[in-house]
Amino acid sequence: MKNIVVTGATGNIGSRVVLELAARNHGQHGNHGNVIAFVRDPLKASPLAAAGAVLRRGTLEDSASLQAGFAGADTVVLITAGATAAEQAKTAIDTACAVGVRKIVRVSSLKASVDGPTDPTRQDGRTENHLRECGLTHVILRGHCFMQNILKGIRSIRDEGKLYFGSGSGKIGMIDARDIADAAVVASIRETWDGGTFELTGPAAIDFETVAAAIASELGRDVGYVPISPEAAGEAARRFGTDAWTASVLTEYCAAYAKGWGDFTTPNLANMTGHAPRSITDFAREVLVPAIHTM
Ligand SMILES: NC(=O)c1ccc[n+]([C@@H]2O[C@H](COP(=O)([O-])OP(=O)(O)OC[C@H]3O[C@@H](n4cnc5c(N)ncnc54)[C@H](OP(=O)(O)O)[C@@H]3O)[C@@H](O)[C@H]2O)c1
Fold first, then answer.
1. Ligand 1 atom closest to residue 44's alpha carbon, by position in its atom list
2. Would 237 disulfide with which of 128, 159, 200, 247, CB 3.0-4.6 Å?
């Protein structure tokens, strides 16, 4: 029996981790203790409660709420978000140490490094260093570019048959965020990967011509890739309401991908989860096309 707390529990990855852990608790895989979703908005998290998760309310900036949130936990799946992610993570790691958490599963980002080319890379580099120094058992999962990012271009795909992106012909080992959740689940309930840092990628490094072709094939209509500059990608995101930090991060990532920074894959996802990583075709068929049809 062990209690597992998931932060970022209403997000893409966190919600899937909570639902899967809750399902395992009620299924034939044995009881792993309470699944605890640390959330800002209990109403938004009501599907998690309905699935059997315990909700604890708080924010990653508020160490008092983190202390209450982490009390009695064996393991924390630590998901942070946005421009202050490193500060959020530091507060959460320090609180976890203070209240006796044994293990942290950290959702980090690809090639995390204090001198990386994007702000999340640098922030996650600082967080990883802090986590390694603090002495807690940990597993670090560095997710490559999420296929789910393509959902931000869903209107131009539907309305114009065009997919705009700023990575030129750079290849990217992009991953379906559902696979990162699957890895976080097994890393939180097994000890096999403790102490490790794992780059998690999709099955292939692909350029956006390939992404557009996969979408077109699943949608049954022409979809063409329109390369734009990294700066134009950031500016377009800003025009559509994205905050300034996220838009500048998009520009940084596009510039890095255009230079081949993301052109790699690893076998780690299959090794950890026992299933092959989902392909861009799987993502287009199971996530993107249904999203277009329900818009
Ligand atoms: N996009 C990529 O390609 C990529 C690649 C690698 C890693 N990552 C990183 O992976 C992580 C998870 O991604 P995701 O898609 O699951 O994120 P997401 O869907 O944006 O969800 C973020 C979660 O964090 C919560 N949150 C945000 N600020 C918070 C705060 N101050 N206190 C408490 N909770 C807070 C949100 O809660 P609310 O619902 O209340 O807003 C939400 O549950 C992120 O850190 C992301 O940067 C992304």
1. 39
2. 247
